Amino acid sequence: MSLPRAGTGRPRMADSTTKEASLSIIRAIARPMLASSFIFSGLDRLRHAETTAKQLSPVLGPLSAALPLDVSEKTLARALAAAQVGAGVLLAAGKFSRPAAVVLALTAGLSTVVEYRNANTDTKENRAHRRNQLSSNIALIGGALLASMDTEGRPGLAWRTEKLLASGKKNAKTQLKNADKQVRALAHDVTGQ
């Protein structure tokens, strides 16, 4: 049996361990890259909490009123910024990356809506800047949503739950069959038939 010459024949599939190793390297590089934007944005919001509170007041005002505690909008703005920084660090470190990515998508979505509504649109340049900022924010939210779905090659929670239920059903059927056999054997011994 001869091997095809170089450049002919069908390409070989990558070995699954090689493929997973290359994806792990990409994850190790891409997650901190994605998280860095959220971390820097969160740090900036922490440093300028007063401005952040003013920008987010359409959202933070009703939220502050709905909470059972007396919390100022500035404190809520700091908490939102701290959540963004913390989730960014977790995503960059690869720890609890899926929930962290969800938090980042939510905080970025909130900030994007508020920034878009409050942007200065007096001049053509300002409108172009607002449009560019919106598109980059949407891209970051999309990246965070993709990261929230990344299972790192491991089965997701839905798949694990489905397999656990299927295993439980199979195990229950086996136990019922064994119990049926034992009851029939006991009935045979008692009745002699």
Description:
The structure is a single chain. Helix content is 79%, strand content 0%. It contains seven helices and no strands. Helix 1 runs antiparallel to helix 4, helix 1 packs across helix 6 and helix 4 crosses helix 5. The protein is elongated, with a radius of gyration of 28 Å.
Any low-confidence stretches, pLDDT <50, length ≥5?
none
Through-space gap between termini: 64 Å
Shape: elongated
Q: Mean of residue pLDDT?
A: 82
Judged by helices, strands and strand pairing, the structural class is: mainly alpha
Count of distinct strands: 0
Summarize the biggest pleated sheet: none
CA radius of gyration = 28 Å
> Helix count?
7
SSE arrangement:
Layout: H1 16-47, H2 49-55, H3 57-66, H4 73-93, H5 97-118, H6 124-149, H7 157-191
Task: Offer a concise description of the structure.
The protein has 193 residues and is mostly helical. It contains 7 helices and no strands.
